[in-house]
């Protein structure tokens, strides 16, 4: 089973709202990732967690705040987003950094 | 700046033909190479991973890696209309979790 789940599927939020995206995997993977993907572009890495610790932050603005409560869960907290943050947000996991990454279905975020 | 380059296409092949997708990368320290398929509006789906020089076959898919030439390719045999999608080449930066993606090649398989 290589399933990564993400909730919600769709999210519309205003620029003053606070919301969270959730990601879960039960494959025993020790690395988890957040990506952002705009239309007709490849995914862009935002954050990497390895063994529940943040190992890579790709200079993401502080209005995006990741959290890894345990080895199966990954959250992305959103606050004061801008319309240009509208995108597909993808979560992925892998056995370890450097191994195959499996993507969840994504959350399509619209900021109004 | 480490880069992964792909021809954006579209690459159009008739049903039943072999589709050949190519990718070059700049980071000589890369150890892990992947091909993802992405249908419009969906998330990327891993179809092949390759870690050592040579060929790796899985069903209708064959990945080829040449580290000396910094070149990765994907062959799809007996192409089907359902293979029509964007194919993303991805390379790990060193041995980190950072995947560098190419811009993707759009494949169209015509019945």
Give the helix proportion of chain A (percent range): under 10%
Tally of DSSP helical segments of chain B: 0
Classify the beta-strand content of chain A into a percent band: over 45%
Strands of chain A, count: 11
Mean pLDDT level of chain B: 95
What amount of the residues of chain B lies in strands?
over 45%
What does the overall shape of chain B look like? globular
Termini separation of chain A: 37 Å
What is the SS-derived class of chain B? mainly beta
In angstroms, what is the radius of gyration of chain A? Answer: 13 Å
What value does the Rg of chain B take, in angstroms? 13 Å
> What's the rounded overall pLDDT mean of chain A?
96
Helix and strand string of chain A, N-terminal first?
EEEEEEEEEEE
Task: Output the keywords.
heterodimer, A: 112 residues, mainly beta, 7-stranded mixed sheet, 11 strands, 0% helix, 57% strand, globular, B: 111 residues, 6-stranded mixed sheet, 5-stranded antiparallel sheet, 54% strand
Structure description:
The complex is a heterodimer of chains A (112) and B (111). Chain A is mainly β and 112 residues long. Chain A is 0% helix and 57% strand. Chain A is built from no helices and eleven strands. In chain A, the strands form two sheets. In chain A, strands 2, 4, 5, 6, 9, 10 and 11 form a seven-stranded mixed sheet that branches. Chain A has a four-stranded antiparallel sheet with strand order 1-3-8-7, with no helix packed on it. Chain A starts with a strand and ends with a strand. Chain B is mainly beta. Helices cover 0% and strands 54% of the residues of chain B. Chain B has no helices and eleven strands. Chain B is globular, with a radius of gyration of 13 Å. Chain B starts with a strand and ends with a strand. The model of chain B has no long low-confidence stretch (mean pLDDT 95).
């Amino acid at each position: 089973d290589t399933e990564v789940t993400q909730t919600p599927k769709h999210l519309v939020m205003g620029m003053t709202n606070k919301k969270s995206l959730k990601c879960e995997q039960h494959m025993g993977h020790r690395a988890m990732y957040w990506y952002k993907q705009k239309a007709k572009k490849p995914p862009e890495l935002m954050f990497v967690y390895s063994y529940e610790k943040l190992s890579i932050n790709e200079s993401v603005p502080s209005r995006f705040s990741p959290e890894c409560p345990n080895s199966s869960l990954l959250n992305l907290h959103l606050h004061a987003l801008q319309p240009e943050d509208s995108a597909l947000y993808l979560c992925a996991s892998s056995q370890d950094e450097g191994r195959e990454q499996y993507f969840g279905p994504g959350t399509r975020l619209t900021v109004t | 700046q480490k880069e992964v380059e792909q021809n954006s296409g579209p690459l159009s092949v008739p049903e039943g033909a072999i589709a050949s997708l190519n990718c070059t990368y700049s980071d000589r320290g890369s150890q892990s190479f992947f091909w993802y398929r992405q249908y419009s509006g969906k998330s990327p789906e891993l179809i092949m991973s390759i870690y050592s020089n040579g060929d790796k076959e899985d069903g209708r898919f064959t990945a080829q890696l040449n580290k000396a030439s910094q070149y990765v390719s994907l062959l799809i045999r007996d192409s089907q209309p359902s293979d029509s999608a964007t194919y993303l080449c991805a390379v790990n930066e060193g041995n980190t979790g950072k995947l560098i993606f190419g811009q993707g090649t759009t494949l169209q398989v015509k019945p």
